[in-house]
Amino acid sequence: MIKIKFAYYPGCTLRTKAREFNESVKAVSSVLGIELEELPSWTCCGAVIPLVTDNVMNLIAPIRNIIYAKKHGHDMVALCSFCYNVLKRANNAVKEDPEKLQKINDFIEEEKKYDGNVKVFHLLELLKDKIGFENLGKMVKKNLSGLRVAPYYGCMLLRPAEIGIDDPEEPRILENFLEALGCEVVDFPFKTECCGSYLTVSSPDTAMECSYNILNSAVKNKADIIVTSCPLCHFNLDEKQEEMVKKYSDFKKISVTYFTRPLEIALGMDITDRSERDFIEILKGKNLLE
Amino acid sequence: MRIRILSKKIRGPLVKKVEDLSGQNIFSCYQCGKCSAGCPITSAMDILPAQIIRFVQLGEVDEVMNSRTIWLCASCLTCATRCPKGIDVAKVMETLRVISLRDKGSFLEPSKNFSGDRLADMPQQALVSSYRKYTD
Questions:
Q1: Mutation target among A48, A51, A167 for the B interface, most CBs of B within 10 A
Q2: Nearest to B130 among A193, A201, A213 (CB)
Q3: Fewer CB atoms < 10 Å away: N or C end of chain B?
């Protein structure tokens, strides 16, 4: 088995609201030989990247965390799609603009100067490139055949194209990952559509309509579950379903989980105590869990 | 609606400001409408994304600053990915928000505008992004 080490950046949500995702990630990574050592002093990345040219201030938080990874001596891994997006975009922004990098280095005077050479990865990229889906397939103890999974990418893993983990319009990475586990992949047209994101705070009805369209499309394509890597997508798609039942007469509920959950099952781990109940029920129904 | 096209508006400081802050060449847009077609939020918008760009081209920046649209764009970047002219429409939307925030102050403050009960369940990243996008 290979052994590789990374500086792990969980981000705010994986340490609070989405703790179960963090636990799931820790569980699978140790079995796969990927050592994720959590950065000792990380801070929030800021959740969104500044999109105006004169906003250097909001790049400080992500770059400071990247400097922590540099100090740690390893490349960085993020799981939350927002964190991945912000860290990677901020890293590129300072690499392409020496003046911005200089400004930030001058501001973060308590740390060593950053030179732009830390790499930021998403766990899915490691599974694809460092382990390989073929090897991953060989590690599978329980083949998940019969489980129909809709891979949901959302926005932040794919866009903009220069930081995306795969093609922004025709991604295959989640599909290939799920196929390696034996799952039946459900192709559905909303897999790269926005779930409504943080509009769930300010315009909840608008966000809910976006999420409803995604769920409805997955259900129509006969998916058993939807997988995601973003805690905010998970919130919008999963926790709003009770409200959707009341609002949309044709709405049918569907189980939403993180992409590491099927991996846990496939690797032979017992997740009965810590997984979403609806997911467990589906696995039992498919005879994938006793 | 009727718009009086004035060269001093089109070449005015506000359009220049939008171009500088967004880093986008507004005038390269030829109104194909692909951004509006792919946008998942258009059903809630009062002005479509391509129309936002058109208004800015015509110097009608105030018109779009008062629209609901700029506060509904969630920066999902579908438009930016698909624009055949390489315009990042999300950057233009953010520029318009930022001009408004710097000029008039916060658009809303989640902790003041929404009940604690509703916010308590929200993932942290939703709250942080809302503050970043809607407060000055």
A1: A51
A2: A201
A3: N
Provide the pLDDT for residue A274: 87
- Give the residue on A whose Cα is nearest the Cα of B111: A201
By Cβ distance, the residue of A52, A53, A198 closest to B74 is: A198
Decide if the complex's ipTM is over 0.90: yes
Q: CB A93: neighbour CB atoms within 10 A?
A: 19
pTM score over 0.95:
yes
What tokens does A23 get? 């636990």
User: Which residues does B contribute to its contact with A (CB < 8 Å)?
Assistant: 20-23, 40-41, 43-44, 71-72, 74-78, 80-82, 88, 90-91, 94-95, 98, 108, 110, 113-114, 119, 121-130, 132-134
Residue B118 pLDDT level (bands cut at 50, 70, 90): confident
Whether A140 shows a pLDDT value over 70: the answer reads yes
Which band of pLDDT confidence, cut at 50, 70 and 90, is reported for residue B114?
A: confident
